[in-house]
Design brief:
Elements: H1 8-26, H2 36-49, H3 54-71, H4 74-86, H5 91-98, H6 101-120
Length: 128
């Protein structure tokens, strides 16, 4: 049996204090955490665009999203993905997106961030 020199209430509070400290230290790491459905959607789309070995591409595409998450809050990411996807809508509705300069700047910035993230995660972005 290990003898401690702390009174009973102090012995009980040490593990609680350590657990609370660990939670407080871990909290900032998840500041730019994205909802799971949005992570899955992004990774599946990436894997569809870049076919290859399943587990290899799963890891590479997840890596790319993690890189984006370090640079963009989820609200920014969601706005950029929506604008980028809406940019390809044909007709008058698509013109609204294409004619708005602020959205075009957002789309260009997202594509640059996405290209850098894919490059750093070794996703081949060369067109064939």
């Amino acid at each position: 049996m290990i003898k401690t020199f702390l009174p009973w209430p102090a012995r009980w509070s040490v593990p609680v204090l350590l657990a609370a400290t660990a939670c407080a230290v871990a909290a900032p790491a998840s500041a730019h955490d994205y909802p799971t459905p949005d992570r899955v959607t992004y990774v599946n789309e990436c894997m569809r665009q870049h076919p290859g070995h399943y587990y290899e591409m799963l890891n590479k595409c997840s890596c790319a999203l993690d890189k984006l998450a370090t640079q963009l809050k989820f609200d920014e990411f969601d706005s950029m993905v929506t604008a980028t996807n809406a940019n390809s809508i044909g007709g008058e509705r698509g013109n609204t997106i294409r004619d708005t300069e602020s959205l075009q700047k957002e789309i260009r910035r997202f594509r640059e961030l996405q290209a850098a993230a894919k490059k750093s995660c070794f996703i081949n972005t060369d067109t064939k």
